[in-house]
Description:
This protein is mainly alpha-helical. The protein has helices at 3-15, 21-25, 36-41, 43-49, 51-67, 71-78, 81-84, 88-103, 107-114, 119-130, 137-146, 151-161, and strands at residues 28-29, 32-33. A hairpin with a 2-residue loop joins strand 1 (28-29) and strand 2 (32-33). Helix 5 (51-67) packs parallel to helix 8, helix 6 (71-78) crosses helix 9 (107-114) and helix 10 (119-130) crosses helix 12 (151-161). 29% of the residues are buried.
Amino acid sequence: MRPSCLICLAVLLLISLGDVSTAYASGQYCGYEADAKFLADNFRKLYNEDYSGFWLIFNRVAKEAVACTSSEDTADFLVLAKQIEGNAEATAAFMRVVEEGIFEKNAECLVNALAMVDAHSARVVLDDLKKPMYIGESFVRNKMQEMSVDGKRAELLRQYFK
């Protein structure tokens, strides 16, 4: 960890008598851009060493992914799929965002973003959508069947229906 980050953490601890959520509201974390890529790169470390900071960042990037104003932001969030494996709490939160937040509101956005991620992350999300925890399986199947797709998106749907 960089010395400047240690100083930042010390300052945050001193400020912790108040509300530290504003330290993350700007999207910064100890001088780093606290985006989905940062969360993916530092997933376990943040989860284990700064639990509240982890969830503040997670919830902020999830909100950006659900808004789907940028397929890249949504894709960056979906890449977390391979990081959450083995963490039941993070998996449940991630899948709730994917199912209820992204897919239910904008299935096209989800498939477009999945076309931008690595095969492992896409497979984790597609496998979840086959047996969703928060939305109906028939709802997912119907939405997937209604989509008109081509290229990589068509391949993703073929993988889903296997």
